[in-house]
Amino acid sequence: MANSRTSGFFLTMLFAGLCAAQMQCRAAEKPNVLFIAVDDLNDWTGCLGGHPQARTPNIDRLAASGVLFTNAHCAAPACNPSRTAIMTGISPHRSGLYENGQKMREVLPDAELLPRYFSRHGYWSAGSGKLLHYFIDAASWDEYFPAKETENPFPRTLYPDKRPVSLPRGGPWQYVETDWGGLDVTDEEFGGDWFVSQWVGEQLRREHEKPFFLACGIYRPHEPWFVPQKYFDQYPLDVIQVPPGYREDDLDDLPPAGKRRGPNRYFAHIQQHAQWKQAIQGYLASIAFADAMVGRVMEALEQGPNRDNTIVVLWSDHGWHLGEKQHWQKFTAWRVCTRVPLIVRVPPGTPGLEAGTTAGSVSDRPTNLLSLYPTLTELVGLPRKEDNDGPSLVPLLRDAKADWPHVSLTHLGEPGSYGLSADRWRLIHYANGDEELYDVASDRYEWTNLATRPEHVGRLASLRKQAPTEFAPLVAPKDESLPQLKWHVLKDEPAPASKPDGSPFDVVFINRSPATIRLHWMDQTGHPRLYGGIAPRDRKRQQTRPGAVWLITDENDQPLGYFEIGDRAAQAVVPN
């Protein structure tokens, strides 16, 4: 009997010891991170209420399970600077990376990206889809789909054979992907984001030897807005509503810099071809498709072994205009372009937030995507990276209404131009000194510019004090990093006439031939005008415009070939 009691005692103690050891083991485990990016998504989600017809049940469900930030903003209103700021934790005004045309590794050759930092601290870092601006940065990842060595983050995607489908090109100034339409295919046949969600889902459904940092880049609703027809069917064209923030006279009270930033040719072109509602339908359909892909990823997490130990973050790199301020696309400091969805869900037992997040929490504090790097390192218990610029969001994850002394900065393409978001007020400051001021508590769509009213002089001064006073200069891309124009060889036919149409920019002409060449601009009547010579192995930077044609001749003015200028800065290489 005594032996039996003794054995029972030892068994009890052994069981208790095993339980304690198991709990210590679990406590020592680092939580996983699921990092979901949705490209070009403004506040047209159910949880943010940006458009009454937007349907995003999966994003809304995620928001209801964690903390939704309703006053979150991007670090820059363009893909490259925004994503670079997120993945490096370095603000554009410190890095000098402000525009899409710059190259991250030319500006920040030694920056340690978020996945690499996690990998160096014991994580398996993997990703799929678009996380950076059209490249992968292979050295920063342990694994990627498509293969990281390709530096192409996009899996096969089905597009129409003949383009454009809906919007005729207005000229060389127009981005070729500004087009939309429904496709008679399944999600799997369409591919693209479906393959991304499939690969990410496979990683979530299996157990891992290490904790993981798993990034999922959903490309829609980035242009072109082609998705399966069933998503277009959710939004019948005859009931499509224009953006609630649109006003035809919304430019009247803007300063000159704002009026230049607002109207662009895209919106006028779309209206001219009676395609505004069709475009809105395409954007809504693309959002619905993106939401379905988020749903696939979240379902894989919920059904897999990593459900209870994974932090989930969902964000978009910047917003998008669909006619507000007479503008189309991005690149502005208005709220429709800077404000983004941001959702964070943290499970209990996370080192930096033991209780986890409270489901259904909503924070209206001014926050920025620049804070994601320091937030995640604090949550999982990694050392803070010293060059991170943003404040950690952990205090707001703990208490969504906590005191928050910070503002949120969004930097435009030229140093010194920015949008500043506070709790209630928004200041837009342009490098030339022009300003706009909005009270978003009473003016959600920023229709009334208060900057010139004398009663707000003190408020303007107070907001300016919270902005940087020094801005790193913009680091121009190296010539060889620019996209390369097609070289058209001439035989008997003449070079075509120029049809210049759009804003000027520089093109670099590079002579790789062993002889001196001569550079001519073809005028609108088809006559060449000499702009000088280029010695062998030399180059010349020349300002030009979309639609211009530049003829290359030998020293005797015998035509060799020509270049047609597209919609952006480029290199024009004369071959050997």
Keywords:
single chain, 576 residues, alpha/beta, Alkaline Phosphatase, subunit A, Immunoglobulin-like, five-stranded antiparallel sheet
Number of beta-strand segments: 26
Report the CATH architecture of the largest domain: 3-Layer(aba) Sandwich
Structural class: alpha/beta
Strand content is: 15-25%
CATH class of the largest domain: Alpha Beta
CATH homologous superfamily designation of the largest domain: Alkaline Phosphatase, subunit A
The coarse silhouette is globular
Distance between the termini: 98 Å
Instruction: Give the strand line-up of the largest sheet.
Output: 5-4-7-1-9-12-2-13
Q: Helicity, in percent? A: 25-40%
How many domains is the backbone divided into?
Answer: 3
Low-confidence stretches: 1-6, 9-28
Average pLDDT, to the nearest integer?
95
Compute the CA-based radius of gyration: 27 Å
Biggest sheet record: 8 strands, mixed
SS field, number of helical segments: 16
CATH topology of the largest domain: Alkaline Phosphatase, subunit A
Task: Please provide a brief summary of the model.
The chain is an alpha/beta fold. It is built from 16 helices and 26 strands.
Describe this structure in words.
With 576 residues, the chain is α/β, with parallel strands linked by helices. The chain folds into 3 domains: 1-30; 32-411, 3-Layer(aba) Sandwich (Alkaline Phosphatase, subunit A); 481-574, von Hippel-Lindau disease tumour suppressor,  beta domain (Immunoglobulin-like). The strands form 7 sheets. It has an 8-stranded mixed β-sheet with strand order 5-4-7-1-9-12-2-13. Strands 19-25-24-21-22 form a 5-stranded antiparallel β-sheet, with no helix packed on it. β16 and β17 (425-429) form a beta hairpin. The protein is globular and about 80 Å long. The relative contact order is 0.14. The model is unreliable at 1-6 and 9-28 (pLDDT under 50).
